[in-house]
Specification:
The chain has 172 residues and is of the alpha+beta class. It is 34% helix and 20% strand. Strands 2-1-5-4-3 form a five-stranded antiparallel beta sheet, sandwiched between helices. Strand 3 (71-75) and strand 4 form a beta hairpin. The longest helix is centred in the middle third of the chain and has 24 residues, at 102-125.
Length: 172
């Protein structure tokens, strides 16, 4: 996705604004890593857990009539894990030390979640760029094979190219 570099830049910027962050990860709601700046944690596993937690939180807010999912905060003995909606297709997960200012964590997490959501939405709306080189022509299995043009003979004449066959026996 073209937005991956921009999302990673946002994660780096977020970690610079909030030094108590020990990791940041942007993932799809399906649990695929989009960008990550985290150490000591397997990004793919965290993305899958984030998608699962976001799904449970979504069901919880829906069941209680609280509207769309916005954020989820988990406090552990050594710090926090915060998850924020990043548009309709993304989720931002932040891992922070226990001494983090939770209000600031929410402020910065919400801002970055909104920014990442905008980046992902823009990437979906932009048509993909055409490849630099067109892909080679392909034929369906069992389809016709490409025809080669015979090289000229030493005397300068070209041999006749074989006629394409239709798979039927020739008639005379």
């Amino acid at each position: 996705m073209a937005a991956e570099a921009d999302v990673l830049d946002e994660l780096h910027s977020l970690r610079a604004r909030l030094p108590q962050l020990t990791g940041a990860l942007a993932a799809s709601v399906d649990g695929l890593v989009l960008a990550q700046d985290i150490r000591g944690v397997e990004p793919e596993g965290l993305a899958a857990l984030t998608a699962t937690a976001q799904g449970v939180a979504l069901r919880l807010t829906d069941a209680t009539g609280q509207g769309d999912f916005r954020e989820l905060l988990v406090r552990g003995a050594h710090g926090y894990v915060a998850t924020y909606a990043a548009g309709p297709s993304g989720v931002l997960t932040l891992v922070a030390e226990g001494r983090v200012n939770v209000g600031r964590l929410h402020l910065e997490g919400r801002r970055s979640g909104n920014r990442i959501g905008e980046l992902l939405q823009a990437a979906v709306q932009q048509p993909d760029r055409p490849p630099r080189h067109p892909p080679p022509p392909t034929t369906a299995p069992g389809g016709p094979l490409p025809v080669r043009t015979p090289a000229p003979r030493p005397d300068g004449t070209r041999p006749r190219a074989p006629r394409p066959t239709t798979g039927e026996a020739p008639t005379r």
